[in-house]
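Appendix B. One record, verbatim.
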Amino acid sequence: MRSVRTLAVAALAAVLIAAPTAAQAAAPIDLGGEYVVDQVGALEDRGPEVLDALDRLYDQSGLQLFVVYVDRFDGAEDGWADATAERNGLGRNDVLLAVATDDRNYELSTDLDIPLTEAQLDDVEAIALEPSLRENDWAGAAVATADGLAAVAQGLPVPEPDITPGEPDPGQRNAFPWGTVLLIGLGVLAAAIVVFLVAAAVARRRRAAELSRAAADRERELETRAGGMLVALDDALTTSRQELGFAIAEFGEQATRDFAVAIDEAAAQVGEAFQLRQQLDDTTQETPEQRAAISRRIIQLCEGADAVLDAQLDAFEALRDLEKAAPTLVPELGARLTPLRERIATTAATLTAAGQRFDEAALAAVAGNAEQADEVLRIADTSLTEARARLAAGTSAAGPARAAQVALAQADALLDAVGTHLRNLDEAAQRLDAAIADTESDLTAAGSAPTEEVTRAIGDARAALDRARAGRRSPVEAAQELLSANAQLDAVLTAVRTEQENRARATTALVTAVQAARTRVAAAAQFIDTRRGAVGAGPRTRLSEAQRQLLDAETLGQTDPVAALGRAQHASALADSALGLARADRDRWSAAPHPAQSGAAELGGLLGYLLGGDDDGYGYDGGGWSSGRRSGGWSGGSSGGLFGGSSGGWSSGRSSSSGSRRSSGGSRRSSRSSGGSRSSRRGRF
């Protein structure tokens, strides 16, 4: 923004020497941290309306729209908007709309890896942007573009804009006739001086606040980008491990050793990235510079892990060669459908019976697994039907064969998780009896040291003991509460115990604490893994940290049981947090509006939700090593292959063609050009 001094001087000069002037071409500009830059007065009093639309867009989609109004574009050979975007460091989720009001041109600059399709961007231009511009609704064009982007990002149609026609040349509205200038000149001069004196201090404070907001916005964008990349790598690792499992079953561990090493190396980098992300989420207050440095390091680690996996892609595809294996693989997969249907029915009955012994909270992590396994089995069945048809027609069946293989494995994982969880609950119920006895022993010992602090801890422990005796329908939660109360009691009794006694107490409690942590971590992990298409960075970060704390507890158990006990209890708390956040993400995904689908598209969307990634028709793009080829480039997650482009195989693909296109809308002409990491869509109105 201009300073008050500059505005005052400019206003005074306009009054004294103003005359109608020709529109001036603008070179690519520095946005100065602003989301809207209006050099021609196009918005008038509708600036707040535009900013509200930009806020809605970010809240609903994570996309950020920047808007610039100038007279004419100048000074950029490869696209004015792209040059401006690159000058200002705009990223993957940033869109720049530039409008030249005098030349009646616009450019829409997007990152090559923006999570939107060509068809979706076409709709935003044709339905939202260009109709508004043709009627000179300058503010409405920005609002309609923001609302259109928000809609397509959620899978919804672009809404028709509410158009308010405006002046065709906003850059000339403020030119004054000479006679008027002479009459009001002295008054404007005096007013400008008064305005300057009164507003100078306010302007300095406002500028400082604007700079602070701009820095916060850049920090938020960097953290959003890092979080998106981390989710993408986590999904890719999960998918790659699954693909590796298929390959080991077929070719053995010796032939797949290099791939296992690559996954371990990438996983180490992702684990470090999650640990850094936890620093951003914890209660420690980092400076903006520290947070930016952490986010940049997360991005660097994600890019490194991507490169490690990518280096093995060609060799892995050559090893699996699903195109050649499909005629044998498809019948083998088909033979698994009936046993899985029977297993789903058995698991549903088992969960119903478990509801008589355990409460709803204890079963929440696996409550919907049988139903979801049934839905995934429908995907496998549909995929195999398509694969058989393609084999009969002599066309490629690799894509649907892989989709069926993935779906069947996922159904198995959902059902296995139920059995594991119920066994863990049974073991927790047995451990609860030991924890109750341990706490009763501590209460007896505490009676010999009746200080005020001990008395308070005794009261808390007795209350927890009563709830534990009544809480056998939720044994994991009851045992955890009892462990926490017991730990408080141990803390106040430490002074009256010897070091050896304290170590013995911690060693005894550690067994129960580690088992409880394993149960909680496993429950969170299976929930996130089988619904990862709907789960964001927050729950995954908590889970990664819980796994790290649990590993520390298991490692320290023999040498420092007191420290190990604290790690195990922290792991349980983090796992609970991860599960709660993941369920909230799942619920938000389920409640969000989704485009109406049927048949294969519906099934593909379901698989994308369960496994992560995107779908095109029958296709499944879940990241990691897949049967298709990637087209290169970092996508940050959902579309394709390892990380970028389309995964090929059983995917209808997305158009990435460049060149010109002409609509049926009369004189409207639009083209798409690319340079660097961004691509600009241009049009006249």
